[in-house]
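Long-time lurker, first post.

We've been arguing in lab meeting about whether zinc ion would sit comfortably in this protein at all. Half the group thinks yes, half thinks no, and nobody has a model to point at. So I'm putting the question to the forum: if I give you the sequence and the SMILES, can you give me back a predicted structure of the complex? Inputs are below. Any interpretation is welcome too.
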Amino acid sequence: MFEFEIQSRDGLARTATFATPHGTVQTPMFMPVGTQGSVKGISAQELTEIKSQMILGNTYHLMLRPGAEMVAAHGGLPGFTGYPGPFLTDSGGFQVMSLGHMRKISEHGVVFKSHLDGSLVELTPERSVEVQQGLGADVIMAFDECPPFPAEVPYIRSSLERTVRWLERCLKAKTRDDQALFAIVQGGIHPDLRQQSLDATVPFQTPGFAIGGLAVGESKDEMFPAVAYTARGLPENKPRYLMGVGHPEDLVAGIALGVDMFDCVYPTRTGRFGYALTDDGRLNMNSAAPRQQLTPIDPDCDCYACTHHTRAYLAHLVKAEEMLAPRLLSLHNLRYLHRLVERARAAIQAGEYQAWASQWGERYFRTQATAQAWAGPLPGWFARAVRGED
Ligand SMILES: [Zn+2]
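Top reply:
Settle the argument with this. Predicted structure of the protein with zinc ion, as tokens:
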């Protein structure tokens, strides 16, 4: 179980299979986020149809409502949600720190006020593992402290040291052997702190490792060198998960640096706001032009929205505020990211990832509003990442 088998390599990028109790997934992969036990607007049947592989569940939300015991009474997230494949749950730490009205963070854990009813709730490494064991995901995450951005170096250092002590407590609390617990490397955007976190975390030899603490407000110029640096220091033969990252350009750049797993609410959130992801950038379905266009969002896409509907129809639904609009745009956006990683895997297998990623980027960034912000066809951070550089 949890065997990670690399199939092909191209530069730092790789394709692999990762075996879990609920199925074997192919990496690199994008994981849709099912915050409340549901990927917003998308049914379990549709997730299977668009070839989702692993779904993310949020410990923070599910422990407050309906509670881990109710999910466990269904045999875990697959029984509760009807999605039969693998799940990953986060530890709750990040969301307590970003959503909860935090009361106190101490060596023991975090006490916070529930955003639902104001009650005081405690989350510790032991409690996080207990809840995640109840939720029953195939991959569970260590309870960590994710410092905000920006944060002072001494604070980042003490929090990453605490994260290592919390990892030890998580591993001690874990009793199920059909769940893989991933450790999380912190350290902000500072190479020396990333190295310190790597040195302390890698020896635990967990079945996979996450790169945490990024996409919290820093620029891409700051984020991607940290991804490159951290990915390079992780074991070659274990999956690497870049947490909370998932714009199309981030996936293409992250894969070039050797990242295997991504998750983000972006495709469903931007779909609810009326945007469709394409190789030409983000298409604004709220604007006038799509209302006149008799073509699909993306003629190459095999999702239900693209194979059955014109842009004009979908833009009409957006304008009329029909509930089908956010559903179909979310469905397309998820399938777009799944197809993007499928194309990335094919390019890696063919040994032409760098050329494919550069070509994809030249088309994608050409139409971006920020195209003037850099010299040349690609932003510097993207070009460097595609070459496998910091
Ligand atoms: Zn589509």
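For your lab meeting: The chain is about 40% helix and 20% strand. The first strand starts at residue 4 and ends at 10. Whichever side wins, do check it experimentally.
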